[in-house]
Amino acid sequence: MSENIKYSVVVSGFKGAMGQYTVQMVRNNPDLELVGVYSPHLSSTDPTTFGLEKNIIVANEATQLPKADIWIDFSVPSSVFENVKFAIKHGYHPVVGTTGLQDSQVDKLHVLAKEQSLGGLIAPNFGLSAVLLMQFAQQAARYFPDAEIIEMHHQGKKDAPSGTAINTAKKISKARSQKATESMENSNAKFARGLIVDGVPVHAVRLPGYVAHEQVLFGGEGEALTIRQDSFDRKSFMSGVALACKKVTQLSELVVGLENILD
Ligand SMILES: NC(=O)C1=CN([C@@H]2O[C@H](COP(=O)(O)OP(=O)(O)OC[C@H]3O[C@@H](n4cnc5c(N)ncnc54)[C@H](OP(=O)(O)O)[C@@H]3O)[C@@H](O)[C@H]2O)C=CC1
Ligand SMILES: O=C(O)C1=N[C@H](C(=O)O)C[C@H](O)C1
Hints:
Blueprint: E1 7-12, H1 17-28, E2 32-38, E3 57-59, E4 70-73, H2 80-89, E5 93-96, H3 103-115, E6 120-122, H4 128-141, E7 146-153, H5 163-175, E8 195-197, E9 200-206, E10 212-220, E11 223-231, H6 238-248, E12 254-256
Parallel strand pairs: 1-2, 1-4, 2-3, 4-5, 5-6, 6-12, 7-9
Antiparallel strand pairs: 7-10, 8-9, 10-11
Keywords: Amino-acid biosynthesis, Cytoplasm, Diaminopimelate biosynthesis, Lysine biosynthesis, NAD, NADP, Oxidoreductase
Function: Catalyzes the conversion of 4-hydroxy-tetrahydrodipicolinate (HTPA) to tetrahydrodipicolinate.
Family: Belongs to the DapB family.
């Protein structure tokens, strides 16, 4: 990135677990400038209340945010679609980590961004270990059609299963050349066998002490393969978010998955 170009950034969901890390990352990144933060349920919009400089706009309505190059979203699954729609319509390049977008919603956002030739990124996971896990799982699924996913997260996680697990299941389903041995659609033990996502059982664990972890188990004739990734700290997501901020302004459409912008 050129020394003189600084991208202005707003952070949506700034008070949350990921929002707080993101605000710090942006403030410490010489290529980025934090100009605004957004969260709808605020008792104060005084930036000093949140340890922010006085020139940073704290908004409890998106329309109060200043214009900026980039909109980073770590909000909640129920709001992410409206937030990203707002961002694209107002010319912010979206960098979206929030889970919960339906495929049809992603398609709508893609069309909206394309109409404006606006680049953006939606990443189910900004951690390199998770991105690699998904790629390795896709590779393994060609030879091991029988797979199950166990995702493990902190107790504060609002959604289940995780966005990463859903994405992994979709990739496995697409990559496997044979059907799984057990037809999941006919499973009687519905709940104990997990949520079936594209024919792949996904099990969600919520425990104190955990941050974000995923394991994919493949079983074959007399052998098994396990692929696992662990995010022990939310710092693990920040280099991916920083990279996305650097790349989205050079894109002319909305892409899904960090792997699409990795060098
Ligand atoms: N892609 C990735 O790599 C990662 C993605 N995630 C995802 O990011 C999202 C956020 O995670 P996390 O930070 O742990 O969650 P938190 O619940 O800690 O934070 C969410 C924040 O969003 C705020 N919020 C509520 N409504 C809105 C809205 N309409 N617009 C903007 N902000 C809003 C909440 O405020 P209030 O509480 O006042 O309502 C809260 O402060 C989740 O979907 C999670 O799965 C998490 C980690 C990594
Ligand atoms: O809520 C989280 O913490 C995480 N959410 C994302 C997901 O649902 O996949 C990414 C990561 O697993 C952490």
